[in-house]
Write a structure and sequence with these properties.
2 strands, globular
Length: 76
């Protein structure tokens, strides 16, 4: 699948194995790469259906646990 630059800050290609999809469908543990691929697919579907404005995708580096505040940037 192609990753739009809006998702990952650069255009790139992402491949996923059928075994990974099977694990996901059977609620088995999966890697973060697989989760990234599913999020990219979700983003693409939402973009196609014009529903992106209803949700926010966050940079996981901006989220922390503890006493630090969540910073999601201007306009969010």
């Amino acid at each position: 699948m192609n990753v739009p630059p809006e998702v990952s800050r650069m255009q790139q290609k992402c491949c996923i194995f059928l075994e990974a999809l099977r694990d996901f469908c059977h609620m088995q543990p999966i890697s973060t790469q697989r989760i990234d691929a599913y999020i990219i697919h979700l983003y693409t579907v939402m973009e196609k259906n014009k529903t992106l404005g209803s949700y926010k995708f966050l940079d996981d580096d901006s989220v922390s646990v503890g006493t630090r505040r969540l910073s999601i940037g201007p306009g969010c």
